[in-house]
Amino acid sequence: MTGATTVSLAQAWIALRADDPDAVSALLVARASLGAGRALAELRRWRLIELAGSRLDRDAIAGHLHGSTQFYNPHKEHCVVRVTDADPLPAPGLAYAVVWERDGDRRAAAERWWRHETGETVEVHEAHVWGAAFAPGTAADVAMDELVRVRDARHGLLCNPWSQASATGPRQLPWIGAPGGER
């Protein structure tokens, strides 16, 4: 392809077109029972899929993602693709937290599909990203840490303390942790 740029990492940010019931529920619980929740103006959730490979063609990434139900359903979900830190986030100005499965949550079926369709090998990881907007004057990073922090060994609002790990604050690509921890 002419003018195509080859990248080694891409992200797909996938959100429901309708209200996300998990985000609505978490917003209501946070407002009712957490100090940081009182200043919470908005809470959103995305599935984040990261593709890592040696030869990902920027012009073809979106087409392959949109052409397969391995990644998302375009009838009920919306997808935004990022390939550099300079690419805009789907909702700029929010405080973000990424939550991933401790075992890495690798998508083997999606990797096989990609290899079959493109002839290229990729590594596919999936996580969730929570984005929060807070009332003016609120320290967003501190408030987001409170929402993500596990208060004890059995409870977590945005992160299951038994099976998930999380990180907050400004982050660079890649966001998702490799098996056993962050990349």
Task: Describe the protein's architecture and organization.
- Helix content is 25%, strand content 33%.
- It is an alpha+beta fold and 183 residues long.
- It has one domain.
- It has a six-stranded antiparallel beta sheet with strand order 3-1-2-5-4-6.
- The protein is elongated.
Keywords for this structure?
183 residues, alpha+beta, 6-stranded antiparallel sheet, 5 helices, 25% helix, elongated
Order of helices and strands: EHHEHEEHEHE
Structural class: alpha+beta
Count of runs of 4 or more consecutive helical residues? 5
Q: Give a count of the beta strands, DSSP E runs of length 2 or more.
A: 6
Largest sheet: 6 strands, antiparallel
Determine the N-to-C terminus distance: 31 Å
- Identify the quaternary structure here: single chain
Average pLDDT for all residues: 82
Strand line-up of the largest beta sheet: 3-1-2-5-4-6
Helix coverage percent of residues?
A: 25-40%
Q: C-alpha Rg, in Å?
A: 17 Å
Number of domains: 1
- Shape descriptor reads elongated
Uncertain runs: 178-183
Question: DSSP strand (E) fraction?
Answer: 25-35%
What's a quick, concise take on this entry?
By secondary structure, the protein is of the alpha+beta class. It is built from five helices and six strands.
Write the layout of secondary structure elements.
Layout: E1 6-16, H1 21-33, H2 35-38, E2 40-57, H3 58-66, E3 77-82, E4 95-101, H4 108-118, E5 122-134, H5 140-148, E6 164-168
Antiparallel strand pairs: 1-2, 1-3, 2-5, 4-5, 4-6
